[in-house]
Amino acid sequence: MKKQNSYLSDNLYVEKDKVNSVKKTMKSEKFFHYLAETFKAMSDPTRTKIIFALCQEKELCVSDMAAIIGTTNSAISHQLRTLRNMKLVRYNKIGRLIFYSLDDIHINHLFAEGLRHVEDL
Amino acid sequence: MKKQNSYLSDNLYVEKDKVNSVKKTMKSEKFFHYLAETFKAMSDPTRTKIIFALCQEKELCVSDMAAIIGTTNSAISHQLRTLRNMKLVRYNKIGRLIFYSLDDIHINHLFAEGLRHVEDL
DNA sequence: GAAACAATTGAACAATTGTTCATATATTGA
DNA sequence: TCAATATATGAACAATTGTTCAATTGTTTC
After folding, report:
1. Tens of pLDDT along B5-26?
2. Shortest CA gap B114–chain A (Å)
3. Which of A26, A60, A117 sits opposite B106 (nearest CB)?
4. According to CATH, what is the number of the domain B44-119?
5. Nearest Cβ partner of B38 from A34, A35, A114?
6. Is residue A29 pLDDT above 60, yes or no?
7. Residue-wise over A29-46: b if at least 16 C-beta within 10 A, else e?
8. B46 near A33, Cβ under 8 Å?
9. Packing angle between helix A105-119 and helix A45-56, nearest 10 degrees?
Protein backbone atom coordinates (compact mmCIF):
# COMPACT_ATOMS: atom_id res chain seq x y z
CA MET A 1 0.00 0.00 0.00
CA LYS A 2 1.09 3.50 -0.82
CA LYS A 3 2.28 5.64 2.08
CA GLN A 4 -0.45 8.13 2.89
CA ASN A 5 -0.03 11.70 1.67
CA SER A 6 3.56 11.22 0.70
CA TYR A 7 4.99 12.55 -2.51
CA LEU A 8 1.59 13.63 -3.81
CA SER A 9 2.09 16.63 -6.02
CA ASP A 10 -1.53 17.75 -5.83
CA ASN A 11 -1.33 18.23 -2.08
CA LEU A 12 -0.55 21.42 -0.26
CA TYR A 13 1.68 19.48 2.08
CA VAL A 14 3.96 16.56 1.46
CA GLU A 15 2.97 14.70 4.60
CA LYS A 16 -0.39 15.98 5.81
CA ASP A 17 -0.43 13.90 8.99
CA LYS A 18 2.94 15.15 10.18
CA VAL A 19 2.01 18.72 9.40
CA ASN A 20 -1.24 18.53 11.33
CA SER A 21 0.17 16.78 14.36
CA VAL A 22 3.13 19.15 14.67
CA LYS A 23 0.90 22.14 14.05
CA LYS A 24 -1.18 21.18 17.09
CA THR A 25 1.87 21.27 19.36
CA MET A 26 3.08 24.69 18.22
CA LYS A 27 3.14 27.38 20.89
CA SER A 28 2.07 31.00 20.57
CA GLU A 29 3.82 33.66 18.54
CA LYS A 30 4.70 35.38 21.81
CA PHE A 31 6.32 32.23 23.15
CA PHE A 32 8.64 31.75 20.18
CA HIS A 33 9.44 35.43 20.19
CA TYR A 34 10.45 35.33 23.82
CA LEU A 35 12.41 32.13 23.38
CA ALA A 36 14.33 33.71 20.51
CA GLU A 37 14.97 36.81 22.62
CA THR A 38 16.47 34.64 25.35
CA PHE A 39 18.92 33.05 22.95
CA LYS A 40 19.59 36.43 21.39
CA ALA A 41 20.65 37.73 24.78
CA MET A 42 23.50 35.23 24.59
CA SER A 43 24.27 35.82 20.94
CA ASP A 44 26.96 38.50 21.19
CA PRO A 45 30.65 37.83 21.97
CA THR A 46 30.83 40.55 24.61
CA ARG A 47 27.79 39.13 26.35
CA THR A 48 29.10 35.54 26.22
CA LYS A 49 32.29 36.86 27.82
CA ILE A 50 30.29 38.55 30.58
CA ILE A 51 28.29 35.40 31.24
CA PHE A 52 31.41 33.24 31.14
CA ALA A 53 33.13 35.54 33.63
CA LEU A 54 30.10 35.39 35.93
CA CYS A 55 30.25 31.59 35.75
CA GLN A 56 33.79 31.79 37.19
CA GLU A 57 33.10 34.48 39.80
CA LYS A 58 29.64 34.66 41.34
CA GLU A 59 29.73 38.46 41.58
CA LEU A 60 31.56 41.07 39.53
CA CYS A 61 31.27 44.84 39.25
CA VAL A 62 31.17 46.67 35.93
CA SER A 63 34.76 48.00 36.02
CA ASP A 64 36.19 44.57 36.76
CA MET A 65 34.24 43.00 33.93
CA ALA A 66 35.58 45.70 31.64
CA ALA A 67 39.13 44.94 32.84
CA ILE A 68 38.66 41.18 32.41
CA ILE A 69 37.12 41.48 28.97
CA GLY A 70 39.28 44.36 27.80
CA THR A 71 36.71 46.92 26.75
CA THR A 72 35.13 50.10 28.11
CA ASN A 73 32.76 50.38 31.06
CA SER A 74 30.23 51.90 28.72
CA ALA A 75 30.22 48.95 26.36
CA ILE A 76 29.85 46.57 29.32
CA SER A 77 27.08 48.65 30.81
CA HIS A 78 25.14 48.73 27.55
CA GLN A 79 25.36 44.95 27.26
CA LEU A 80 24.41 44.47 30.91
CA ARG A 81 21.22 46.34 30.19
CA THR A 82 20.34 43.74 27.57
CA LEU A 83 21.12 40.94 30.02
CA ARG A 84 19.13 42.68 32.74
CA ASN A 85 16.13 43.17 30.45
CA MET A 86 16.13 39.49 29.59
CA LYS A 87 16.49 38.59 33.27
CA LEU A 88 19.76 36.75 32.74
CA VAL A 89 21.56 38.74 35.43
CA ARG A 90 20.64 40.50 38.63
CA TYR A 91 22.58 43.05 40.62
CA ASN A 92 23.45 44.13 44.07
CA LYS A 93 24.35 47.73 44.79
CA ILE A 94 27.05 48.42 47.38
CA GLY A 95 27.89 52.09 47.59
CA ARG A 96 28.84 53.24 44.15
CA LEU A 97 29.68 49.72 43.03
CA ILE A 98 27.12 47.47 41.39
CA PHE A 99 27.83 43.76 41.58
CA TYR A 100 26.25 41.63 38.90
CA SER A 101 25.56 37.90 39.04
CA LEU A 102 23.70 35.33 36.95
CA ASP A 103 20.01 35.40 37.73
CA ASP A 104 19.34 31.72 38.38
CA ILE A 105 20.71 28.22 37.92
CA HIS A 106 18.80 27.81 34.63
CA ILE A 107 21.10 30.33 33.03
CA ASN A 108 24.15 28.37 34.17
CA HIS A 109 22.71 25.18 32.70
CA LEU A 110 21.72 26.79 29.43
CA PHE A 111 25.11 28.41 29.05
CA ALA A 112 27.00 25.26 30.08
CA GLU A 113 25.13 23.30 27.42
CA GLY A 114 26.22 25.84 24.84
CA LEU A 115 29.83 25.61 26.05
CA ARG A 116 29.74 21.83 25.74
CA HIS A 117 28.40 22.06 22.19
CA VAL A 118 31.19 24.41 21.10
CA GLU A 119 33.91 22.47 22.93
CA ASP A 120 32.88 19.36 20.99
CA LEU A 121 33.72 20.95 17.64
CA MET B 1 42.01 43.79 58.54
CA LYS B 2 40.98 45.61 55.39
CA LYS B 3 39.80 43.49 52.48
CA GLN B 4 42.54 43.38 49.88
CA ASN B 5 42.15 45.53 46.80
CA SER B 6 38.54 46.36 47.50
CA TYR B 7 37.12 49.82 47.05
CA LEU B 8 40.55 51.35 46.45
CA SER B 9 40.13 54.29 44.15
CA ASP B 10 43.80 54.37 43.14
CA ASN B 11 43.54 50.94 41.58
CA LEU B 12 42.73 50.15 37.99
CA TYR B 13 40.47 47.37 39.19
CA VAL B 14 38.17 47.16 42.14
CA GLU B 15 39.16 43.63 43.07
CA LYS B 16 42.51 42.81 41.52
CA ASP B 17 42.54 39.17 42.64
CA LYS B 18 39.16 38.40 41.11
CA VAL B 19 40.11 40.13 37.88
CA ASN B 20 43.36 38.21 37.53
CA SER B 21 41.94 34.81 38.40
CA VAL B 22 38.99 35.18 36.03
CA LYS B 23 41.22 36.59 33.32
CA LYS B 24 43.29 33.40 33.41
CA THR B 25 40.23 31.25 32.70
CA MET B 26 39.05 33.28 29.72
CA LYS B 27 38.98 31.47 26.39
CA SER B 28 40.06 32.75 23.00
CA GLU B 29 38.34 35.44 20.99
CA LYS B 30 37.45 32.78 18.44
CA PHE B 31 35.82 30.62 21.08
CA PHE B 32 33.52 33.35 22.36
CA HIS B 33 32.72 34.35 18.81
CA TYR B 34 31.70 30.84 17.90
CA LEU B 35 29.73 30.39 21.12
CA ALA B 36 27.84 33.59 20.38
CA GLU B 37 27.18 32.42 16.82
CA THR B 38 25.67 29.20 18.15
CA PHE B 39 23.21 31.08 20.33
CA LYS B 40 22.58 33.51 17.52
CA ALA B 41 21.51 30.61 15.32
CA MET B 42 18.65 30.12 17.79
CA SER B 43 17.88 33.79 18.21
CA ASP B 44 15.22 34.28 15.55
CA PRO B 45 11.52 33.37 15.98
CA THR B 46 11.33 31.58 12.63
CA ARG B 47 14.38 29.49 13.55
CA THR B 48 13.04 28.65 17.02
CA LYS B 49 9.86 27.48 15.31
CA ILE B 50 11.86 25.29 12.94
CA ILE B 51 13.85 23.77 15.79
CA PHE B 52 10.72 23.29 17.89
CA ALA B 53 8.99 21.53 14.99
CA LEU B 54 12.03 19.27 14.52
CA CYS B 55 11.85 18.40 18.23
CA GLN B 56 8.32 17.07 17.62
CA GLU B 57 9.01 15.30 14.32
CA LYS B 58 12.46 13.89 13.74
CA GLU B 59 12.39 14.68 10.03
CA LEU B 60 10.57 17.37 8.07
CA CYS B 61 10.87 18.66 4.53
CA VAL B 62 10.96 22.36 3.67
CA SER B 63 7.39 22.65 2.36
CA ASP B 64 5.94 21.01 5.44
CA MET B 65 7.90 23.28 7.75
CA ALA B 66 6.58 26.24 5.77
CA ALA B 67 3.02 24.89 6.16
CA ILE B 68 3.48 24.27 9.90
CA ILE B 69 5.03 27.65 10.56
CA GLY B 70 2.90 29.61 8.12
CA THR B 71 5.48 31.29 5.95
CA THR B 72 7.03 30.86 2.52
CA ASN B 73 9.36 28.07 1.42
CA SER B 74 11.94 30.70 0.59
CA ALA B 75 11.98 32.18 4.09
CA ILE B 76 12.32 28.68 5.57
CA SER B 77 15.08 27.78 3.15
CA HIS B 78 17.04 30.92 3.97
CA GLN B 79 16.80 30.18 7.69
CA LEU B 80 17.73 26.55 7.15
CA ARG B 81 20.95 27.73 5.57
CA THR B 82 21.82 29.54 8.78
CA LEU B 83 21.03 26.44 10.82
CA ARG B 84 23.01 24.29 8.39
CA ASN B 85 26.01 26.63 8.54
CA MET B 86 26.02 26.46 12.33
CA LYS B 87 25.65 22.66 12.19
CA LEU B 88 22.38 22.67 14.10
CA VAL B 89 20.58 20.65 11.44
CA ARG B 90 21.52 18.05 8.89
CA TYR B 91 19.57 16.84 5.89
CA ASN B 92 18.70 13.81 3.89
CA LYS B 93 17.81 14.09 0.24
CA ILE B 94 15.14 11.78 -1.12
CA GLY B 95 14.32 12.57 -4.71
CA ARG B 96 13.37 16.21 -4.87
CA LEU B 97 12.48 16.32 -1.18
CA ILE B 98 15.03 17.29 1.43
CA PHE B 99 14.31 16.10 4.95
CA TYR B 100 15.90 18.10 7.71
CA SER B 101 16.58 16.95 11.26
CA LEU B 102 18.42 18.25 14.32
CA ASP B 103 22.11 17.50 14.03
CA ASP B 104 22.77 15.88 17.41
CA ILE B 105 21.37 15.37 20.89
CA HIS B 106 23.28 18.40 22.18
CA ILE B 107 21.00 20.66 20.18
CA ASN B 108 17.95 19.02 21.76
CA HIS B 109 19.38 19.55 25.25
CA LEU B 110 20.37 23.14 24.59
CA PHE B 111 16.98 23.96 23.12
CA ALA B 112 15.10 22.12 25.87
CA GLU B 113 16.98 24.12 28.50
CA GLY B 114 15.89 27.31 26.74
CA LEU B 115 12.29 26.08 26.63
CA ARG B 116 12.35 25.36 30.36
CA HIS B 117 13.69 28.82 31.10
CA VAL B 118 10.92 30.52 29.13
CA GLU B 119 8.18 28.24 30.48
CA ASP B 120 9.19 29.27 34.01
CA LEU B 121 8.40 32.92 33.39
C1' DG C 1 30.50 72.04 48.55
C1' DA C 2 33.86 70.16 45.14
C1' DA C 3 36.53 66.56 43.11
C1' DA C 4 36.85 61.75 42.03
C1' DC C 5 34.75 57.82 40.74
C1' DA C 6 31.22 53.95 39.20
C1' DA C 7 27.85 53.27 36.31
C1' DT C 8 24.20 54.64 33.07
C1' DT C 9 22.37 56.87 29.14
C1' DG C 10 21.53 59.03 24.44
C1' DA C 11 23.00 60.09 19.90
C1' DA C 12 25.33 58.62 15.96
C1' DC C 13 27.47 55.51 13.01
C1' DA C 14 28.64 51.39 10.41
C1' DA C 15 27.51 46.67 10.12
C1' DT C 16 24.38 42.88 10.18
C1' DT C 17 19.88 40.72 9.71
C1' DG C 18 15.31 38.69 7.87
C1' DT C 19 12.03 39.02 4.58
C1' DT C 20 10.18 39.40 -0.13
C1' DC C 21 10.44 38.87 -4.92
C1' DA C 22 12.29 37.00 -8.91
C1' DT C 23 15.11 33.68 -10.75
C1' DA C 24 17.83 29.40 -10.90
C1' DT C 25 18.76 24.46 -10.18
C1' DA C 26 17.40 19.82 -9.86
C1' DT C 27 14.23 15.99 -9.95
C1' DT C 28 10.10 13.64 -11.45
C1' DG C 29 6.66 11.94 -14.56
C1' DA C 30 4.07 12.46 -18.82
C1' DT D 1 11.49 17.15 -24.24
C1' DC D 2 8.22 19.72 -21.38
C1' DA D 3 5.57 21.03 -17.39
C1' DA D 4 5.26 20.59 -12.52
C1' DT D 5 7.40 20.54 -8.25
C1' DA D 6 10.96 21.16 -4.25
C1' DT D 7 14.39 23.74 -2.84
C1' DA D 8 18.04 27.15 -3.10
C1' DT D 9 19.86 31.60 -4.15
C1' DG D 10 20.83 36.67 -5.16
C1' DA D 11 19.46 41.38 -4.88
C1' DA D 12 17.20 44.82 -2.40
C1' DC D 13 15.06 46.84 1.37
C1' DA D 14 13.84 48.24 6.05
C1' DA D 15 14.89 47.19 10.68
C1' DT D 16 17.97 46.07 14.32
C1' DT D 17 22.47 45.88 16.55
C1' DG D 18 27.03 47.04 19.05
C1' DT D 19 30.34 50.30 19.68
C1' DT D 20 32.20 54.93 20.63
C1' DC D 21 31.91 59.39 22.46
C1' DA D 22 30.04 62.83 25.33
C1' DA D 23 27.14 63.95 28.92
C1' DT D 24 24.64 62.62 33.19
C1' DT D 25 23.39 60.50 37.65
C1' DG D 26 24.51 59.07 42.09
C1' DT D 27 27.91 58.00 45.70
C1' DT D 28 31.99 58.71 48.44
C1' DT D 29 35.74 61.29 50.33
C1' DC D 30 38.17 65.33 51.25
Report:
1. 333 333 467 788 899 999 999 9
2. 6
3. A117
4. 1.10.10.10
5. A114
6. yes
7. eebbebbbbbbbbbbbbb
8. no
9. 110
CA dihedral sign, ordered B70, B75, B119, A15? positive
Residue of A nearest to B54 (CA): A22
CB atoms within 10 A of CB A119: 10
Per-residue pLDDT tens over the stretch A3-14: 233 333 334 677
Share of chain A above pLDDT 70, in %: 90
Interface contact A36-B42, CB threshold 8 A: yes
Give the Cα separation of A51 and B75 in Å (integer).
32
Summarize pLDDT for A40-66 with one digit per residue, the tens. Answer: 999 999 999 999 999 999 999 999 999
Domain residue extents for chain A: 44-119
